Every structure is written in structure tokens, then in C-alpha cells.
Records
---
Amino acid sequence: MKKLKFIFSLIGTMIFSGCSFDDEIKALKTLKQLDDGLYFIEYIGDYDFDAFLAQGGNKTNEEMADFLTKSLSKGKWNGSKNQDEKSTVKITTPNFGCSSIVAKNQNGQTICGRNYDWKDCSVMIIHTKPNNGYESISTCCLEFLGYERNWVPTYKFPNDMMALATIYVPLDGMNEKGLYIADLVNGDTETTAQNRGKTPLTITTAIRLVLDKAATVDEAVKLLDNIDMHSVIDTAHHFAISDANGKSVVVEWVDNKIYVTETKVVTNHYTAESPKQGVCTYENSKDRFSQLEKIGTENNWIMNAEQIKEALKSVSAGQYEFNTHELTVWSSVYEPKERKITYYLRENYEKPIIIEF
């Protein structure tokens, strides 16, 4: 991600040429701080993702940054077809290596949980409601856009313009159909670079594709099999994906071939049925996997939001000594039926931040 950070640090000097930025300003007016190092922004309308796909997608972060530079500089993001449309998002902030688990609640509805383990960074929660796609909530680590941990918005245009680029850099999320997806690093440093003549995408733009266009796991897998995946940061990745119908899978790439296997748990080793199944160079990945499986099995895979939270807490960075991770930056509990996500920031499991959409 170092190249991406550098590129986006340059865009701010390149994007303004006397164009109209009414829609971008409207989106930036939604930018708000929810907690220390946690921000929220929303975009209702067309943020050019279909145009991004039509012009060829991206094999590299440089290509994505180039597209966004041109898109933003022309004031091209079109906003809502109904300019009077109001946000449906409600935000609640009471005073008070990565893992994923999927179960069902007592009503038989899918419930998911995800830890994002990394060094401390500022976080953006993104609400998008595209004209030609599904509404979703997603999460971005702002370090990937060059923002330091102590970044604070100016709440002035154009200073915070790059906050809109978070739309193209989600690391996990859920859409209005209950489709959940999360990116986790995988078991080694294999780089995926498919070249089958299909539209190329990188990890984060593939997540945006799935959130915008897929209602089920099967639709998500079909979309991913119809792109050329490029992992760009010299490490293997895999996706945990589940839907409101209860299907949950891991999607992995080995020797540039896609593999999909049903599983309720994903951590940081190869899990799909592939030539690399079980390969792991990430410390504690299999321990965390076993811990989540144990909790799920003990509960017959019927768990409520509190139990999912406690499961995530049990495999958080605070419970393990990671070589490269300092903490669990966020834990999130996804409840598709309620269209609700509960975040816990920096292992503070007593302070939920609730997003409903």
C-alpha cells in the first residue's frame, strides 16, 4: 500500500480546474467524527464505478489513482438522481492478523463478525447509495490513503476531497441485501495477477464490485470469477463472504486460479480446497481459527450479537502476540436482517458504535 499512499498524497494538488463540485461538496458535508480516529462519510448517487469498470478497471493502485484523479478533477461524480433524497443512516455513539466468523441467530438469520488486525490507524466508515447498485456500509483504513493516525478533517473544501476516495478502498462491508465481504491476508506472499482477458481489479475495487452488484454468495463468486484479480501488495489475500440466506465461503487464488469452499470461519491461512490448503506463515492463524470453530460448535452455530462480539474478543490482538500487528483496530458485528453493523474500536468492547441503514 506504500505506492497508493504516495499517489493519493499527490492528487490533492492536481484535481481543481474551475469545474463544478456541488455533488462532492454535498458528500463532504456528511463527513463527521464518531470517535477518536473514527470518521463517517456518505455518498448518495453516481461515484463513477460503472465508468471505472467500462474504462478497464485497474491492475495497479497507480491506475486506480489515475482514474480517480481524472474523475474528481472534472467534477464528474454525478450525485443522486433525486437531489432532495435524504440519508437513511442512523449513527449511535453511546457514552460509555484478522478473523471472520459466520453463524445464525436464534431466529435463523445470518450474523457475521470480523476483526481487522493492524497497527493503529484512523478509520473511515463509508455509506454509499449508488444510482446503479446496492446501498452499503463499508470500512476503510485511512493509512491506505496516506492519512496518518492523527489526521483530523478540516471540514473545508477542497482540503478533505480525498476522503471521497475511500469509496474505492473498502476492506470489508455489507450491502442492503445482506451480502457481507471481508478481506483478510492469506497464508504466504503469493501474488495474484490473472491475465485471462477479463476486466482487471485489485483487492479493494473487487470488494466495491461485490458490495455494489452482488445480492448472494453465488452472485459474488460469479463476479469474482469474471474479473482478473491483481493482489498488488506482494501478499496473498482471501475473501470471507456470506449472504442473508446463510451461505458462507472463503474465496482464494492459487497459481492465478480461483478456489471457493464453504466455511464459517476464516483467518490467515489457506482454507479453500486447493493445492495450498493448510499453508500458513502467519503466527496464530490456526489457533484463532480453532478458537472460533470451537466457540461456534459449542453453540451449534447459533449465536447472538453479544456472543459474536465475545468470540471476536477472544481472538483479538490483545489475546495474542502478533509479530506485525499491534492491535485489533476494529471489530464489527454484522446483522443483515436488521441492516445493522456494530463496531468496536481498538479493542474497547464496552463501547459499541452502531450503524443502521
Note: The mean pLDDT is 89.
---
Amino acid sequence: MSGETTKLVPKLRFPEFQGAEGWGADGLGTLADFANEKISLEEVALEDYVSTENILADYGGIARASKLPTTDSVTRFKSNDMLVSNIRPYLKKVWRADKDGGASNDVIVIRAKPKLLPQYLSALLKNDAFIDYVMTGAKGVKMPRGDIASMKAYPAPYPSKPEQQKIADCLSSLDELIAAQARKVDALKTHKKGLMQQLFPREGETQPRLRFPEFRTAGEWEVLPIGEKVELLSGYPFDGPDISPDTTGVPLLRGINVTEGRVRHNAEIDRYFTGSVEALEKYKLQLNDLVIGMDGSKVGKNSALIATADTGALLIQRVARLRTKSVDLIRFISQQINSSKFHRYVDKINTSSGIPHISATQIKEFCIAFPSTQEQQRIADCLTSLEALITAATQELAILKTHKKGLMQQLFPSAEAVDA
């Protein structure tokens, strides 16, 4: 591979460059410096320190560091340097510095040489193609680390500087749209969290601080264990050769399918039951059943109401199903299960060092304050409408991210062409 211009041409090119010469390509270590200058920790303020902990995943920028390291020195970085977390590269923790500061030893500092504009280097590294390449050379299973020698050999394509600038400007504008949409999602989630804190009574209280006008004189809520309001069932212990990825079987609803607020599906995690289902009727899910993951790192935090697409799926062991005759009641309970109060309850239960879990009995014993049926419906309607806004905003964010990914695949020559 050489830095000479070649016949490398991306699928999509801006009109003013369509007749221009092909792109060059070279190893990243030739086009950029892997900086390793050390500075004393005394020269670095907390807000200017970057580690693998405070670089955000999915190219999300950085958060303020919570503490400084105990080492005497850190790696110096400058404004416009690229900082890449070298622990679990698949998390896509890549940030373009907008200030000077110091980085931990697990953060790689990459600085553009004259052939590359810093903003183009940012587009090159905040790119799934780069992350996929780094992962092919990563070492370790539980905590993979990128191999710096392999990283320096990354075949980096580059056009003329005017075309680099055009690509960087285009992707930067798209990044701004994505960031604005992400802020909108976060603002809606924060608003919902604050609203729930007002609409539900606090610990030890029987009335909320905020009530709809028609219920302000309705009196206290009734505190009851959730088991008195729901029919709770734990899933069936499916096992053996009848469980497979064979889509001709009956879908299984497993804990891995349940996320925060929704049921997710993909070919890697979906499983099906190909045996007889005659004796398993009670494990079939119905519309508006509430399912809760009963073990794992997010035990109690992963719950969802069953939508039409998942009716008829079979409930597997270690997932709880809560069912009521009233749709408004289960929606009201669902909001309480998604609250910080229930999450604190689960955390209090899980004090051992083993795999976090919660039992069906413990779910039944969780106490909820219940208002009248009419007020339950009003609260559920309000929060469900807000959730719909959050879902729509989240989907729009996903569309923007997908659009950017597809655009980058068009704006850069394919990895196969660069390697050739």
C-alpha cells in the first residue's frame, strides 16, 4: 500500500469532485502520530482528564471525569487530537478533543499529520469500518484490547484536502442533527422521570404531590402488595433439542428478549420451540401481559408490555408474567415497575455477590399505592402518551444513525478496495 494516488473511488462523490483523481491510501501510522508525550498529573484539571470511563459509547462524546487517577503522569492530548478507548473497542468510544488535557494509559491519542485534516481524521476513526478492523486484531475475550501495531497498519483512504473538508463538513452536520435528536430523547426521558416522581406517592406516603384536577379531593391511595392485583406466572423450563433457531417453531420469550420498555428480536438471540405445545397453553403470552426479567445484570429493570407481534409466544423460565383483566390496571402497574422505586427494591434484595435475581414471591410482595380505577386510567393514559413521544423520538434517532452509517459506506471506498 502506498500514499500515491490510486484508482480508489468511493461510490458517492460530491459533484465538484466527480472528475477528480482517485484517492490515496496508507497505513494510519504513516498518516497520523500515535502521541505518547507524558505530562505530570498536577498539570491536569479534573474537567480536562479523559479515561475509558468518561468517553461515551457510540461516538457520544465525553462526560466529566468523576476522579483523577493515582498515577503520577498521564498522556498529553491537544485540541483536535483523536482519543480512542483501547478497552472493549466495540463500544465505539472515540472522541475528537476540543481542548487540551491528559488521558489515561488505556486511551490512545492519535494526531493528524499534514496529509490529513483533523476533522477528516475524525470522520475516518468515528467509523464502524475502523472499529471492525480494530476488533479483528483485538486481544482478550472478556476485556478485549486493540493492538496498537495493528491499528497503525489500518489501511486509511484519503482524498485531496478540499474533498476531505467537504466530507467532514457533511458528516459534522449530520452529527449535529444526531446530537440534537439525542438531547431531545434525553429531555423527554428526564421529563417523564420527573413527572412520575410527582404523579406517584413518595416512600411512606399515600398521596402524590401532583394530581389531575378532578382527583385532588379524592383522598388517599390504597397501598397493597402487587400480588393482590395480578396473576403472576414464572415461565416454563424449556430445555433440550426442541429449542433451536428454527423459525418454524413457536417463538420463545426469553429474558434476553426483554429490554427496558420493549421486547427486542434478532436472529442471534431469538429461539423457537419445535416440540408439542398441547400442555403449554398457560405459558402463551397475551396482549398487554407485563413481562419482567428475573435475573441478570439488569434484573427488574428489564420489563415490557406484550404487543400484538408477540402474542402466542411461550414464556420461558426466569421471566415473570403479570396479567390482569383490566388494561388500565396493567398499564398503571407497568409504570410502577419501570419506576426507580421498584429498581431500588430489587437492588435492596440483591445483596449477594452472585448473579442478581428476583423471585416470583418477591415481585408479589412489592407494595404499590393504588388510586381509584378512574385515576389509574388517567395516569396511565398520560404516561403512555409520553412514552409514545419517547418511542417516536428514539426511532427518529435510530433512523438518523442508520442514515449516517449508510452514507459513510458510500462516501469512503470499501475496505476491500483499499486493501487491494
Note: The radius of gyration is 26 Å.
